[in-house]
Amino acid sequence: MDGDRLPVGRRVAYWRGRRKLSQQVFADRLGKSKSWVDKVERGVRSLDRVSTLQEIATVLRIDATVLLGRDVQPAEVIERDAGVERIRSALFRYEVPLGRAAGRRPVLPAGQVARQVRHAWVTFQHARYPRVAELLPELLADVERAHAGDPVAGRAPLVEAYRITAALLVKLGAPELAWLAADRAVTAATGDRVVVAAAAVQLGQVLRASGQGQKARSVVLAAAYRIAPPVVEFGLPPELSLCGTLLVQAALAAAGDGDATAAAGLLDEAAAMAVRVGDGHDHHHTGFGPTAVELARAAAAVEWGDGRDAVARHEKATARDGWRWLPAEHRAAHLLDTARAYLQADDPVNAGRALMEADRIAPAEIRHRPAGRDVLARVARDPTAPTMLVHLAVTLGIG
Known about the structure:
By secondary structure, this protein is mainly α. It has 23 helices and no strands. Residues 12-67 form the HTH cro/C1-type domain.
């Protein structure tokens, strides 16, 4: 609906239809006649009293401002777009290779830059995406200069900064720009198979977000098997975490392509590694462990369209202690998948509950992430949607 161009009566008709109310039922709830409603919707009768507008908005479970129309984008959309553009500008600077002056900002030692990168990771894992978008432009400049001054000590912070950038851009719905960051991470990591594997985690995410499932499987499996120990029992937790996370990425890519058998096999491989790692760790910022693999099984089921299986796996996984130890970003993202699963299972009520829990844990997953806003829009259309979610959808300009 191009709502800002519609007259008030047409807006009323639109939202009445969205709420699946007949003109008679709608009129009864307002204490008006069906003829009155028909005239309002056809524009024959004007709505010039604020109290009447408010009564209509209450029955339709929307904010009265929606009936009056809005000429601006929601603040969250503007903030997200501005954040993406700031990061784009930072990635297109090429200050170091072109020998451009760094300005007044000093070139920081690699150790100090590494601490800044760790802070950015923590901020991302708390799902404070607008704040990460603010940090990244200067952080990217700092890590690039630090790497130029000390290529050995500066490589890991450089790769990690590009990983964060790619991860955030995927969240914000900019996969093409995310690919540039992920590609730079892999290029900077070349020569160290472990650091390459870490960078490949985000490259796999980017390729999946871009609809390149086959390429994602090929890339992440190559990186995974380069660091896979000959015997799982002898593997070190950090490397097992990377290898297992890459197998999860490959499994989700396979699931997205409809290959449930391959996805299940890859997740079984990852599960064997997860047992050795255990829950409650965050090696290489992966959050990998048995609970993470179980959540991935649920996500894979959503990908191939088995919502009921996904819901069952969600209920089992979130009962584990490891669920509480995962970063807020990870848990909220899983709850978005769970809302999709409930919708597949024709259970919009529980889909709404999953979204409300996601909004409680990490509001930015819904308010700033396009995928979250899309799920919210689907849930809010249902007449049984919780009033709080409907109000959130209206506030965010989601129809």
